[in-house]
UniProtKB/TrEMBL annotation:
Pfam family, one: TauE
Membrane topology note: Multi-pass membrane protein
Protein name per UniProt: Probable membrane transporter protein
Subcellular location: Cell membrane; Membrane
Lineage: Bacteria, Pseudomonadati, Pseudomonadota, Gammaproteobacteria, Lysobacterales
Listed InterPro entries: TM_pro_TauE-like (IPR002781)
Primary location: membrane
Top-rank lineage group of the source organism: Bacteria
UniProt similarity note: Belongs to the 4-toluene sulfonate uptake permease (TSUP) (TC 2.A.102) family.
Provenance organism: Luteimonas vadosa
Residue ranges crossing the lipid bilayer per the database entry: 12-30, 50-72, 84-102, 114-134, 141-158, 178-209, 216-235, 247-270, 277-293, 299-318
Keywords in alphabetical order: Cell membrane, Membrane, Transmembrane, Transmembrane helix
Length: 343
C-alpha cells in the first residue's frame, strides 16, 4: 500500500483556495443580496463550528453533526439533512483535504484510489435509483444505526485502534480492489441515502483490515468524503435538485466549515485523536437514543428492538472485518519472515 509523505509542504495552495472561496461567498452574500438569508440561519453556523472540527479530526464527516441538528433538533426533513451534508462537506471537507494534501500528510493511496473510482460509480447509482426509494424514517434510522455502531466500536476498541503504528502493506492491486468495492457499496447505499458515511466505511477497512495508524486512516477518510460530497451535490444540482432550505443553511455554515475542518486536522495533531474519538463515539450513541426517542410513536418496542438488532448486526460485521484483518496481517508477517511462523 503506497504512502505519500514528502517533506516539502505547499500551504500556499490552501490559502489560494480560501481566497477563492471567501471571494465567491462574499459575492453571493453581499453582491447578490443573500445576507439576510445567511443571517437567518445562524444556528446551523454555530452547530457546524463544532461539526467542522469533527469533520477534520475524525473519520466522521461534518454531516455527523449537521444531519441530526437539522433533522432532530430543527425538525427538518431527513432529505434536507442529506442534501445539506453533501453541500456543506463540499466546502468543509474539501478545504480539509486541500490542507491535508498541501501538508503532505501520509495517505493510503492504493485503497483511496479504488474508493474514488468506486464512489464515482456507486454514488450516482445510489442517488438516482436507491435514495428516492428510501422513506424519511428509514433515512433517519440508517444514519442512527450506522453511527451508533461506529460509536460503540470505538468505545470498547479505542485502545487497540489508537495503538496502531504505520500500516500493514498488502498487494497494491488487492488494496485497490477493496477500495473499489467500498466505494461502490458505501457510495450507493449509506452515502447516497444519508449524505455521509463512505468515509467511515473506508476508515473501518484501514484500521480493522490493515491496522493502519490513525494519522493515515483519518486523513484518507476525509479525502474520500470530500470527493463523494462534491459528486453528490453536483448530481443533486444537475439532475435531481436539492431540498428547499439547503442554500440558506449552506450560506450560513460554509464560511465556518472552510476554516473549521482544517483546524480540526491541525489541532488534533497537537492534542491527540483518542480524546476526540471517544467524545464523538459518545455523541454517536447519543444521537441513536435521541432518534429512537423522537420517533418512538412510530417505532414502539418492536421498532426499537429492530434498531438495536441492526446496530448489533453492524458491530458483528465490523468484528468479522477485524478478525479477517488479523489473519491477513499474520500472513503478511509470515511472508516478511520468509515463510516462518509469525512471532
Amino acid at each position: 500500500m503506497t504512502l505519500l509523505a514528502p517533506p516539502k509542504r505547499h500551504l500556499w495552495v490552501w490559502f489560494l483556495w480560501l481566497a477563492g472561496f471567501y471571494s465567491t461567498w462574499a459575492w453571493l452574500v453581499f453582491g447578490q443580496g443573500h445576507w439576510d438569508e445567511a443571517k437567518a440561519h445562524w444556528p446551523i453556523a454555530l452547530a457546524m463550528a463544532f461539526g467542522s472540527y469533527i469533520a477534520g479530526s475524525t473519520p466522521m464527516g461534518g454531516g455527523t453533526v449537521g444531519f441530526p441538528i437539522l433533522v432532530l433538533a430543527f425538525d427538518m426533513p431527513a432529505t434536507l439533512g442529506r442534501d445539506f451534508s453533501f453541500a456543506v462537506q463540499s466546502i468543509g471537507m474539501v478545504s480539509a483535504s486541500i490542507f491535508i494534501l498541501a501538508r503532505r500528510q501520509p495517505l493510503a493511496w492504493s485503497m483511496l484510489k479504488g474508493a474514488l473510482w468506486g464512489s464515482a460509480i456507486g454514488t450516482p447509482l445510489g442517488i438516482l435509483f436507491i435514495a428516492p426509494l428510501i422513506p424519511e424514517l428509514w433515512i433517519k434510522l440508517v444514519f442512527a444505526v450506522v453511527w451508533a455502531s461506529f460509536g460503540v466500536l470505538h468505545l470498547y476498541r479505542i485502545d487497540e485502534i489508537a495503538g496502531h503504528t504505520g500500516m500493514t502493506e498488502f498487494d497494491e492491486r488487492w488494496d485497490f480492489r477493496v477500495g473499489l468495492a467500498i466505494g461502490v457499496g458505501a457510495g450507493a447505499t449509506v452515502a447516497a441515502v444519508t449524505g455521509v458515511g463512505i468515509d467511515m466505511v473506508l476508515y473501518a477497512a484501514l484500521v480493522l483490515l490493515c491496522r493502519a495508524d490513525l494519522k493515515i486512516a483519518i486523513p484518507t477518510s476525509v479525502v474520500i468524503m470530500a470527493a463523494t460530497s462534491l459528486m453528490g451535490i453536483a448530481l443533486k444540482l444537475g439532475l435531481t435538485g436539492v431540498q428547499p432550505g439547503v442554500f440558506g443553511n449552506w450560506l450560513a455554515a460554509a464560511p465556518v466549515v472552510a476554516l473549521g475542518a482544517p483546524l480540526g486536522v491541525l489541532v488534533v495533531a497537537l492534542v491527540g485523536r483518542r480524546p476526540t474519538l471517544l467524545f464523538v463515539a459518545v455523541l454517536c450513541v447519543g444521537q441513536f437514543a435521541w432518534t429512537c426517542f423522537v420517533e418512538w410513536d412510530v417505532l414502539g418496542y418492536a421498532g426499537l428492538a429492530l434498531a438495536i438488532a441492526a446496530v448489533a448486526a453492524c458491530l458483528y460485521a465490523l468484528e468479522r472485518l477485524r478478525r479477517w484483518g488479523g489473519v491477513l496481517v499474520a500472513e503478511a508477517q509470515r511472508k516478511r519472515n520468509g515463510g516462518a511462523p509469525g512471532r
